[in-house]
TrEMBL record:
Response regulatory domain sequence ranges: 7-124
Protein name (Swiss-Prot/TrEMBL): Response regulator
Keywords noted in UniProt: Phosphoprotein
Gene Ontology biological process terms, A to Z: phosphorelay signal transduction system
Top-level division of the source organism's lineage: Bacteria
4-aspartylphosphate: residues carrying this PTM: 59
Pfam families: Response_reg (PF00072)
Amino acid sequence: MSANKITLAYAEDERWFREPMVEMLVESGFDVIGAFSDGRELLTFSENCSTLPDLFLTDLRMPKLNGLELTKEILKKWPHAKVIVLTSEIENFYIEEAKKAGAVCFLHKIIDYKNIKHALLEVHQTGATTFGKLNL
């Protein structure tokens, strides 16, 4: 893991979305230490890491362990972790459930890559808890 780059682990079951997202994150200077097709894979990886990523990025709807369950599990094990939900779900119910689970940010997949990068940087640098209130 790079000492200068923000590290993150990413769980997204849709390969068509996951792969370009990882490419964008790497091109934007993030160190993606793992990209996984479900929450269980990300959790298992994190349990075996010597150093946790700076940020966890997760989709909501995934097989085996969904994003809300993953968020709860991460924060149970590592209470100071920063979990960001990135999803196509736009209903307020999901935003509220993500907050209850302990996510620090909720982003819609419909925003462009530049704004996703901005949100990740803001959460990492300021520790901001952001739910649709970013100045994008």
